[in-house]
Amino acid sequence: xxxxxxxxxxxxxxxxxxxxxxxxxxxxxxxxxxxxxxxxxxxxxxxxxxxxxxxxxxxxxxxxxxxxxxxxxxxxxxxxxxxxxxxxxxxxxxxxxxxxxxxxxxxxxxxxxxxxxxxxxxxxxxxxxxxxxxxxxxxxxxxxxxxxxxxxxxxxxxxxxxxxxxxxxxxxxxxxxxxxxxxxxxxxxxxxxxxxxxxxxxxxxxxxxxxxxxxxxxxxxxxxxxxxxxxxxxxxxxxxxxxxxxxxxxxxxxx
Length: 255
Fold this sequence. Notes:
- The structure is a single chain.
- The protein is an alpha/beta fold.
- It has a single domain, classed as NAD(P)-binding Rossmann-like Domain (Rossmann fold), CATH 3.40.50.
- Helix content is 40%, strand content 17%.
- The chain has a seven-stranded parallel beta sheet, with helices on both faces.
- Helix 1 crosses helix 7 (224-234) and helix 4 packs parallel to helix 5.
- The protein is globular, with a radius of gyration of 18 Å.
- 42% of the residues are buried.
């Protein structure tokens, strides 16, 4: 069994922590590199100590190419290797508003983190994965990419961009420059959760949360562990035939 190096962004959020824990328990995991932004340092350190020596952490602004490069050069096995990239990092607007009342400077930050940060990490990871002939990338999208939320359309647009990035990269990543007739074993997928029971859900109005639960056949929020289990499967060799796919985890909300 080959040992895998796993990189998780947004590791201090509810989904990120659940992902880190499930990979830490796997015998196939050699090392987990966890990143989040600087004011989460204590939370990252606590999570690392919990994961039995398999994890390392790095405070990283994923919108900074120089900080991404530092992660690759410092915290990965050398020469740099990433077998599994899980792009969990994402932000939403603290104050929802229609576009005509949106602060576009603040809105650009949402696009920078959710889309450009994800794209930058995908670019760095795919280069390494193609050199090694193997890789798994799982991006976090959202059901709002399919059904935009009034008052939150910049966030919805950022997640729709992640979906298209995922689909396009799934076609590009398998290219084998040594032998184009033999595609590389690299898959790129996304998961699209509904409202997950994490701190980010607290940014939403009670009316929106209750509306989601009322409209979803399961009648509840999604648990972070449920998202993590789907991510873990998509990162496994059992899922090597699944690529360019968006897996919806919404309790049936969009059924």
